[in-house]
Amino acid sequence: MPELHHTRLLIMGAGPAGYTAAIYAARAGLQPMIVAGMQPGGQLTITTEVENFPGFAAPIQGPWLMEQMREQAEHVGTRIQYDLITSVDLSRRPFRAVGDSGDIYEAEALVIATGAQARWLGIPGEKELSGFGVSACATCDGFFYRGKDVAVIGGGNSAVEEALYLANLAKSVTLIHRRDTLRAERILQKRLLAKENVTVRWNTVTEEVLAETTGRAPVARGLALRDVNTGERSELAVEGVFVAIGHSPATGLFKGQLDMDAEGYLVTEPDSTRTSVEGVFAAGDVQDRVFRQAVTAAGTGCMAALEAEKFLALSEDQSQAEAA
User: Fold this and answer.
1) CA-CA 20 to 30 A from 149: which of 119, 162, 197, 199?
2) Confidence at residue 285, expressed as pLDDT on a 0 to 100 scale
3) Is 141 a catalytic site residue?
4) What is the end-to-end Cα distance of the chain in Å, rounded?
5) Three-class SS string for the chain?
6) Binned average pLDDT, 10 residues per bin, the chain of 324 residues
7) pLDDT of residue 118
8) Predicted local distance difference test score (pLDDT) of residue 273
């Protein structure tokens, strides 16, 4: 039978932002509840090696890091529900959310940490080789391709920024774009084209990520390309493939209820995680269209918990004053 859950602080999402918010909130005595969503652990659960999260001298596995965060959150008193929120009502307090299970969640404050997903091309080999030569984050994985040949797919700011970052690490960078002009800002284009180890393949689409299967596990060895004007097909030998065609924040539930930017990211106040609804806070990639790192997500999770604690304390003081 469906259950009614009431908590002072409900956290939607179980990635670095959600778990960190829970850890801080639990230690503050807020007895938070996490609704883990469709992918507990977030994007790090599909990341093979993490080398840039502080505190670990050697590379660690993404799923292991998320498991440790979950255990830490539970250890300090967080309740975790493995459910998927399908609707929310932010028009009144307590806020009300309904899960796919039928359970109802009511909370005095809400932290949204539902994250964002990288957009993928949907071509053969892309999913199968994710983490084995295919990535959507140069800042996360570029270090592993020092002195190697890599490709970046895309033509906007994200793609050019990824290519510029990789140009300082890789032997060569090939930017593959389906049009004859880039959509990135002019200053970024100028910087990119000035790099001696960067080549742009114009009017070209990627049809497949090619795999090398002779080793212990399949890894990327190149790309199958097609010229959109001539139809000519070719192969490009690379060891790293970075897909940079944007991200999609998981904010569909909040349309019409919270302020968002043109791409759907939740808008928060400067130097804050506060959203346009009092008592609702946003942390991690759901409100960060720039950095999208595990450590920055964790940082905003901390901020959200501290702000939620202050909000709840002020609300209680007001309620007591009104009752007196």
Assistant:
1) 119
2) 95
3) yes
4) 40
5) CCCEEEEEEEEECCCHHHHHHHHHHHHCCCCCEEECCCCCCHHHHHCCCECCCCCCCCCECHHHHHHHHHHHHHHCCCEEECCCEEEEECCCCCEEEEECCCCEEEEEEEEECCCEEECCCCCCCCCCCECCCEECCHHHHHHHHCCCEEEEECCCHHHHHHHHHHHCCCCEEEEECCCCCCCCCHHHHHHHHCCCCEEEECCEEEEEEEEECCCCCCEEEEEEEEECCCCCEEEEECCEEEECCCEEECCHHHCCCCCECCCCCECCCCCCCECCCCCEEECHHHCCCCCCCHHHHHHHHHHHHHHHHHHHHHHHHHHHHHHC
6) 94 97 97 92 78 92 94 98 97 97 97 93 96 92 95 94 95 97 93 96 98 94 98 98 93 97 96 98 95 94 98 91 78
7) 86
8) 98
Confidence (pLDDT) at 323 = 79
Query: What count of residues does the chain have?
Result: 324
Q: Which residue has the tokens 């084209």?
A: 193
Residue 4 and residue 32: Cα distance in Å, rounded?
15
Q: What is the pLDDT of residue 133?
A: 96
Confirm whether pTM is higher than 0.85.
no
Gap between the Cα atoms of 120 and 16, Å rounded: 22
Active site residue 302: no
Instruction: Please pick, among 83, 89, 103, 140, the residue that the annotation labels catalytic.
Output: 140
- Tokens representing 208 are 């497949």
Angstrom CA distances, 204 to 14, 100, 182, stand at 38, 42, 12
Catalytic choice (83, 141, 285, 288):
141
Q: Quick one: CA dihedral 92, 98, 104, 108, positive or negative?
A: negative
Best CA proximity match to 221, nearest among 125, 295, 141, 111? 125
Catalytic status, residue 180? no
Structure tokens at 132: 């084995």
∠ CA 36-272-294 to the nearest 5 degrees?
A: 45
